[in-house]
C-alpha cells in the first residue's frame, strides 16, 4: 500500500474473550474477578463450563452466579472496553424467568430478615450470664 492510500477501517470484532466481556458488561468489578469466577465454575456458556479465554459471540447464552444472584443472559453486543453502565446494559438481555427468579429470591431474603429485631441496648450483667448459660443470643 502506498502512503497516500487511505487505511481501511478496523474490522468489527466478531468475538471477545469471556472474562473481558464480563468485565465490560459490569458483572464483575475487575477482570481478574471475572477470570476467577469463570475458573471456579460460576459462569456457564450455553450450559457448559468455559475457560476465561473462550471466544464469546453475539447470541451466546450465559448463566452467571454472582453471590446469591443468578443471571441468565443472552449476549446482544460485544465490547472489550468498560464504559458507562447505560452502555454496558446494551451488551446483554436478561431473560424474564431469570429476572423473576432474582426478584423472588430478593423478596425471600428480605422476608427472612423481617423477623429479627436487634436489641436496643447492650446486655447487662444478668443478661450476659443468661446468654452464656443458654448459649443463645435470643435468650433476653
From TrEMBL:
Residues 16-78 form the RNA-binding S4 domain. CDD domains: S4. Keywords: DNA-binding, RNA-binding. InterPro entries: HSP15, S4_RNA-bd, S4_RNA-bd_sf. PROSITE patterns: S4. It comes from the Bacteria. The keyword Membrane does not apply. SUPFAM superfamilies: Alpha-L RNA-binding motif (SSF55174). Gene3D superfamilies: RNA-binding S4 domain. Belongs to the HSP15 family. This is Heat shock protein 15.
